[in-house]
Amino acid sequence: MQKGEHCVGDSSLIVIFLKNVKSHLPLRVLVLALSFHAVCFADDISASKPNSIGKSTSNELAKGASIDLTSELSTPFQIALVAPIQFARSDRSVAGLRIDILFGKNENTRGIDVGLVNYTSNDFGGLGFGLVNIVGHDAKGLDFGLVNYTSNDFWGLGFGSVNLVGHDGKGLQCGAFNWAKGDFAGIQSGALVSVAEGSYHGIQGAFVSSTTGEFKGLQSSVISATNGEFTGWQNGWVTSYCGANFTGFQSSGLVNVVKGTCTGVQIGLINIADELKGIQIGLFNENGKGPITLCPFINIGF
Questions:
Q1: From CA 205, how far away is CA 150, in angstroms rounded?
Q2: Contacts of 297 (CB under 8 A, 6+ apart)
Q3: DSSP β-ladder status, 270-287 and 294-301
């Protein structure tokens, strides 16, 4: 079948649509032009596949090379109303500008992504501006949105009411609710909650800050808590809690707790450590393994 015949055949659906917009001549012309171009573009790509990934691809695969075919299927411009009603198909990648009026979907996105709901099935790199930004695998770059979600790793800056990372994060998360399900290195600044389920290296702050793994750096919140070992400064305007060994400076307006060995200084109204190798300053001080278990005002452990 010839390319021209293919385009005309696929345009039959367009003719039906155009019959319903008789009074809108500019709209009919625009729709017809864009649709005709998109169909022919897809046909050209399909026709070029045997030449572009024929013998050379077989030879490279025989050598164990990894072939990335997304470059064969990318477009420099994408505009979408609601996927799949969009200029390029959802399994194509975008390297340039993507505009998602309501909802757009593509395999990979590199460049500028603007819209109401921006969805990338695989990897994203660039600038994302939308009400909701969703990435199905890794993301590198800058995200501005009400909700920013990356399924796997995130490197960059995320600004939104809700920032979610499905694995490791590196960079900055700034919003009301920040959450990384793996390790995080950088800064989490949240109005309500900042959480890392793995280790954390950097600065973490929110109304409630929490990490599951090892923490190195500064944690300062109304309630600051980590279940792993802590090295640095932990400040809780109400409570500071460390579920393992602690090295550094722990402060709070009410209670400091170390469920392990505290090497350093605790300053608060109430200071509690399973074992103290340092100084506690407060109204009530407890050193679980010290010669003096309970001591008001100042307690010293070795």
A1: 21
A2: 281, 282, 283, 285
A3: antiparallel
Return the SS3 of 20.
Answer: coil
Task: Identify any residues that bridge with 173 across adjacent strands, giving them in sequence order.
Answer: 158, 188
Residue 111 identity (one-letter amino acid) = G
Whole-model pTM: value is 0.74
DSSP annotation string for 146-179: EEEEESS-EEEEEEEEEEEESS-EEEEEEEEEEE
* Pair 106, 124: CB distance under 8 Å: no
Which tokens is 117 given? 């709901």
Domain regions of the chain by residue span: 1-66, 68-144
Tens digits of residue pLDDT in 58-90: 443 334 333 343 445 789 999 999 999 999 999
Whose tokens are 């994060």? That residue is 169
Q: Tokens for 12? A: 């039959």
Q: How many residues does the chain have?
A: 302
Phi, psi of 282 (to 5 degrees): 175, 180
The 10s digit of each residue's pLDDT in 205-221 is 999 999 999 999 999 99
